[in-house]
Design brief:
heterodimer, A: 115 residues, mainly beta, seven-stranded mixed β-sheet, four-stranded antiparallel β-sheet, 11 strands, globular, B: 109 residues, 9 strands, 0% helix
């Protein structure tokens, strides 16, 4: 069974540019999450989808970040315009539907560098 | 903020048991203890979780104290590949994990 995949693995962009990160969850997982780690900090929750609906986006830092999950399958996280402080590793995770205690499976992450 | 406290780092000799402690004194009755690890810069990897009973799987054992205010993750025979940052997470089922700083475990040859 394929795990959570993320694309690209690395992205280097200039300040002010736009970047779109993609996450493909494990097939059949209705729950999809985005987290990120910025340099020297803990991994922080960004948002949670159930199928195509946003359930909790309390961790989104500002309106430069837009997450979508059209059709309830893969998800994208767009940063527009990117700022220096957006640099970090962005992780996606997915879990089965049902009780919230199902473990989350994480992807390998996308390392974003904003110059 | 994370509801857990873990030592910053630990060393363990290869082949020996690694015992990683976690304090969660404010844990509520419906909150589980989850353990994940992150090897290098890979994504966090699920290890084990429990509510109040001790748990064991092919990777590790989880010992939770009777008052549930602390727990210990046990890797019975640590290998070099177990070198990683280990996170203890108190999870209430609200879907989002709150990560702390974790314990950096170094397994020594």
């Amino acid at each position: 069974e394929a795990g959570v995949t993320q694309f690209p693995s690395h992205s280097v962009i200039e300040k002010g540019q736009t970047v779109t990160l993609r996450c493909d969850p494990i097939s059949g997982h209705d729950n999809l999450y985005w987290y990120r780690r910025v340099m020297g900090k803990e991994i922080k929750f960004l948002l949670h989808f159930v199928k195509e609906s946003k359930q909790d986006e309390s961790g989104m830092p500002n309106n430069r970040f837009l997450a979508e999950r059209t059709g309830g399958t893969y998800s994208t996280l767009k940063v527009q315009p990117a700022e220096l402080e957006d640099s970090g590793v962005y992780f996606c995770a997915s879990s089965q539907s049902g009780a919230g205690y199902n473990e989350q499976f994480f992807g390998p992450g996308t390392r974003l560098t904003v110059l | 903020d994370a509801k857990t406290t873990q030592p910053t780092s630990m060393d363990c000799a290869e082949g020996r048991a690694a015992n990683l402690p976690c304090n969660h004194s404010t844990i509520s009755g419906n909150e589980y203890v989850y353990w994940y690890r992150q090897i290098h810069s890979q994504g966090p990897q699920y290890i084990i979780h429990g509510l109040k009973n001790n748990e064991t799987n092919e990777m590790a054992s989880l010992i939770i104290t009777e008052d549930r205010k602390s727990s210990t993750l046990i890797l019975p025979h640590a290998t070099l590949r177990d070198t990683a940052v280990y996170y203890c997470i108190v999870f209430s089922g609200t879907y989002k994990y709150i990560f702390g700083t974790g314990t950096r475990l170094k397994v020594l040859a």
